[in-house]
Amino acid sequence: MMTTICSFWTIKAQLQSPTPTRAKRRQSFRGKINELLGRSPKVVPGQESEARLIYINNHALNEQQNYLHNRIFTGKYTSFTFLPKFLYEEFSKYANLFFLFISGIQQIPGISPTSRWTTLVPLLIVLTITAVKEVIEDWGVHRSDAELNARGCKVLEGSQFVERPWRDIRVGDIVRIDGGGHFPADLTGKEVNLKIKQGLPQTAKCVTPLDIGQLQGTIKSEQPNNRLYNYDGTVTLSVDEVGRNRDFALDPTQLLLRGAQLRNTSWIYGIVVFTGHETKLMLNSSKKPSKVSNVTRLTNRNIVYLFIILVVMSICCSIGGLVTTISKGSQMAYIAVNDMSRAGEFGYGILTFLILFNSFIPISLMVTMELVKYIQSYLIDSDLDMYYEPTDTAATARSSSLIEELGQVQFVFSDKTGTLTCNEMQFRQSSIAGLSYADKVESDRQARDGVDDPTLQYTFSQLETHLKSHSTANVINEFLTLLAVCHTVIPEQQEGSDEIIYQASSPDEGALVKGASTLGYKFHTRRPNSINCNIRGRDLEFQILNVCEFNSTRKRMSAVVRGPDGKIKLYCKGADTVILERLAENNPFVEPTLMHLEEYATEGLRTLCVAMREIPEDEYARWSQIYDKASTTLVNRSEELDRAAEMIEQDMFLLGATAIEDKLQDGVPDTIHTLQEAGIKVWVLTGDRQETAINIGYSCKLLNEEMSLIVCNEENHWDTKNFLEAKLKEISDVKNRGEDLEPLALVIDGRALTFALEKDIEKILFDLAVLCKAVVCCRVSPLQKALVVKLVKKYTHAILLAIGDGANDVSMIQAAHVGIGISGVEGLQAARSADFAISQFRFLKKLLLVHGAWSYQRLSKMIFYYFYKNVALYLTQFWYAFYNGFSGSTLYESWTMSCFNVIFTFLPPLAIGIFDQFVSARMLDKYPQLYILGQHNEFFNQKKFWGWFANAIFHSLILFFTGVGAFRNDGVFMNGTNGGQWWVGTVVFTAVLGCILWKGALITDMWTKYTFIAIPGSMVVWFIYLPIVAYIGSSVSTSVFPEYNGIVPQVWGNVNFWLYLILVPFLCNLRDFAWKFAKRMYRPMPYHFVQEIQKFNLPDYRPRMDRFRQAVNKVRRIQRLKRNRGYAFSQTDSDQTKIIRVYDTTQQKPQG
Description:
Blueprint (H helix, E strand, L loop, with lengths): L1 E6 L14 H16 L13 E6 L2 H5 L18 H9 L3 H13 L13 H30 L2 E6 L2 E6 L8 E5 L7 E7 L16 H5 L3 E6 L10 E6 L6 E6 L4 E2 L10 E8 L5 H5 L9 H35 L13 H15 L8 H17 L14 E2 L11 E6 L6 E12 L2 E4 L18 E3 H10 L3 H13 L4 E4 L6 E4 L3 H12 L2 E6 L3 E6 L2 E11 L7 E7 L5 E7 L1 H5 L9 H13 L3 E10 L1 H16 L4 H12 L4 E12 L3 H10 L3 E5 L4 H10 L8 E5 L4 H20 L7 E6 H7 L5 H9 L3 E5 L3 H14 L3 E6 L5 H6 L2 E5 L6 H5 L2 E3 L4 H39 L12 H11 L2 H9 L5 H6 L5 H4 L6 H25 L13 H24 L5 H28 L10 H6 L2 H28 L3 H11 L9 H18 L12 H5 L12
Parallel strand pairs: 1-10, 13-26, 13-30, 15-16, 26-29, 27-28, 28-29, 30-31, 31-32
Antiparallel strand pairs: 1-6, 2-7, 3-4, 3-5, 5-11, 6-11, 7-8, 8-9, 12-32, 14-15, 14-25, 17-18, 19-20, 20-21, 21-22, 22-23, 23-24, 24-25
């Protein structure tokens, strides 16, 4: 039973006296304002040196400290901040700011050549749609926060625990957390069971609500900070009946962090020390940043270019108008001219033409982009291929504004445990007495009984048969006995069941003990000095005389055991490199065991060698004295214990080896391999030991046998710098000589990374890392994960993606351009803080290669098409200015121009942006190399923008001048009036619309029913709109759409109109068709080939080299294993002996 400090959500506070002060009231008021504004509290460096005082079981005094509440808020907006924050962000977009300016000057009488509402109304519609989308997305975050804040937790009130929501938990509250529950705040507590987190023995007696309710004392705690692995505090408790107090130190082993899950433990009591946004994990999680996609940034830049062109056009037209007035003013006395100065007339002209040409910049582009992204995010949410049935979890796009970034990712930063692996170890194979056994054996490799062939495999059921009659039965018995005895596992009986749960500090140990249990060697009871095992129906007791624990230097652990027969035996298990050199001479099973180890390694299994020897009584007596002396020394105790262990761990007999599978999530190796084929560099950032991370790297195909590992484990700044510089120079020299560079992988541990991230080394680290195909960072903290991401972001313009499943991955997820959370067993903190959430790592492949590639290509095409159509239309207005003396007259009716974007050409960009597919999902999965097009910005770059712009100029010239030429003779209407510019304007507008829609059809790769509705349907809408406004408008009033009065029969009845409508748009797009044909035939892109493979269902003739590559990789794996074996044993460096020496599973555990 232990006292543990558990941290759920840590909050900042100062040591304060019981009486509130003015400063405290100010702090409380400031906290309320911050809460209203949705701000997180900041840790003030100067305050960290002060202590926060927490009174145990004294709520009144704790309330006076004004500590922060436990509610959390991760949304972007509050009801108070929504409007100012939203308007600030929207008017940070150049397009919206420009249209706000145009809307303002349109209200000035006499300036606008169009209606004063034609810009303001569309702008308000755009802002309203965007606001609704923002509210919907942020509401989901608020709902998640509300669900988290409403979670229940048992809180001590008087002498009983009552249910209370997380949001109402306060500093100083004593809570009870049951097994499997999550911690609601940062706690210090008392727990019952084996745990790497251990409480104070002084509170171990408090196992009932009455006991814990009578506990009195104070906790002096450090101030809230973001140091996850550090904690300093003291608890003052009464130590005798007289009431004398004593201080006991608190450290990180007594700290439980908010959001973490209680495992391997039935229940704990804990006292809350930090709450809400002052918990350590929340202080490590910065406020969810506002991320802007690369495509959006480039679009804003292009809008600036269009604005500059618009201003130049307006100035040119204003100059033209001024020149016309000066040179021909006497000839235009019939025109009413404003009586103003030349300068005033010039400025007046600029404003007029700015209004006239304002839709040169597409007002609805941004809202169309947001709408398309929102629908694309819905398609992700609805994709059944990314639905995980066991947890009933679908993929979720929590931030649709970044969806196109998924198609341009060049770096993926991934956590390991829970993201790549399930953190489930399974005992798969073993080598015993030179024979290999496995839980599943392929039929062509299965050995027959009676044939001892080390190259074949036996099943575990055959192993049980060998135990009875085989010549190696004694070795098998010792092997399985070792697995059942040599460990620090605690067995826990499930209530109402015979099932035993093994609580282990290392998942490897748990897997080995469980494996032995399934083979008939069932460990079921632990006492301080002995254990009991049921071995083939017999209950046997083994005395545990000594345990020599594992550490990273020894790479092995051993137990000295007195068996039921009274003999003393040493059982030892560890890395093969350290076991083999401690064997006695003439061990008969070394060679076949090594062969089996090589086979296991090629399958990515984690291997251990196991050995034993009998120890004579007199030898043990002498050694025991040496061990006891070493265990009680006060100087270099761990080194002395290692020396003592070295003396006994000699002349051992090799029993065999074990092979454990660190179970990967389904599809992880294939996903990583595919991502690498797609040009994506995968970096794994993990808190695990280096050996474990490397082994998993090979298992999941992040590392392969073609790669040369660069391992950096330096201990100080200068050694790290020298190592990285030397490696970088060595690689650069190879490249400069023009030699082929073998694939590289960089492996660096957390300590060396600390130095490598300093300013004078970080660029060297980056330069070396980007030359590597894979990077593995081991033993890193959450902050280091974020710093690595920020380092790459600093020195490259590539799109970065971070993926993780735990709260310790949040800072990394938020630092990357795109953050993906896995909603798994580690909780939902990562998923809630991410831009996208998936339930399995394998879904990342479709998310990037299919949805990402589609979204990027669709949006790129849609944005350029949007620019093109507006430039093509409004340049015809510019050419018309040369015909009307730069008077500011418009060629088109003003409301028709306003409806151009929101009605007549609204659907085609939507159809392209939502439904178009340049290749199918199956082809994108089959040819991941197509993803490289997005990484190189092939579909969205400045060259393409200016190409589309030039094309729009070309089309506008043909459309306007052929229209003016064809209809230069004015039409005479039935009422005797001339058509004027409306006659030509209506014809040209119709042809421009036809040309734009034809262009949309030409760039569409896949036609759906929605495409047919959008493109031909838009022309139908125009032909419905024109008679409605022409006839209904004039019937209402002569001032309603007077421009179209009588125009329909005059235009539609003219055969030239229909010839013009068919031929001129065709002529415009003929050049585009010829260019598209020439590019596909003579300068094809990779996706052109795939499109033809897809269309004609061509077979794939790529050579099949799989078998050859597998053979080559197997040879290389064996070579690697021979170079560097024995690093696949995962074990925690901790003093487990103290725990097992006080543990007795025969005693009834308190229920709390």
